[in-house]
Amino acid sequence: MHETGMCDEIVQAVLRRAEGRQVAAVRVRAAFAGHRPDPAVVEQGFRVAAAGTPAEDARIELVTEPPAVSCRDCGARTPAADALALVACPRCGGVDVEIAGDTGAVIESITYQPDVRTSEASETSEASEVRT
Q1: N or C end of the chain: which has fewer CB within 10 A?
Q2: Of 5-9, 14-18, 62-66, 116-120, where does mean pLDDT reach its minimum?
Q3: What tens digit of pLDDT does each residue of 113-132 get?
Q4: Could you give phi then psi for residue 27, rounded to 5 degrees?
Q5: What is the CA radius of gyration of the chain?
Q6: 21-73: per-residue pLDDT in tens?
Q7: What is the pTM of this model?
Q8: Residue extents of the structural domains in the chain
Q9: Alpha-carbon distance 93 to 84, whole Å?
Q10: What DSSP assignment string belongs to the chain?
Q11: How does strand 59-65 pair with strand 23-31?
Q12: Alpha-carbon distance 127 to 68, whole Å?
């Protein structure tokens, strides 16, 4: 997944949830097979995609994790720490493996700027899946 497309989708999902409220921070969890997004590139892409919106000044926190790989030979389910684990089981070396679980990005939380009328910040902890 390219960071630019991912950032556009993240900002669109955040804006739908924000319903016009000013966004202070966004936490995104991402599991990617083969290509781990560069946090600096995601930060820059988020800034570009959010320019001129209620998320323009928001901080983005990117948490990355490798996808899980299941081996049909030995039954192991292990994190794919590198690209080799996507084609061969780290446990037995078997090549009958598949990516198990989701890959992509999920918005874990959105923190809003305090509402000047109520002096309270609102945070949502519901996850939203981002597909690009």
Answers
A1: C
A2: 116-120
A3: 987 655 555 454 444 555 44
A4: -115, 125
A5: 18
A6: 999 999 999 877 666 788 899 999 999 999 999 999 999 999 988 878 899 99
A7: 0.70
A8: 3-66+103-130, 68-101
A9: 10
A10: --HHHHHHHHHHHHHHHHTTPPEEEEEEEEE-SS-PPPHHHHHHHHHHHHTTSTTTT-EEEEEEEPPEEEETTT--EEE--SGGGGTS-TTT--S-EEEES--EEEEEEEEEPPBTTTTB--EE---EEE--
A11: parallel
A12: 20
99-129: b or e for each residue (b if 16 or more CB lie within 10 Å)?
beeeebbbbbbbbbbeeeeeeeeeeeeeebe
Amino acid identity of residue 24, one-letter, is A
Q: Which tokens belong to 101?
A: 């679980």
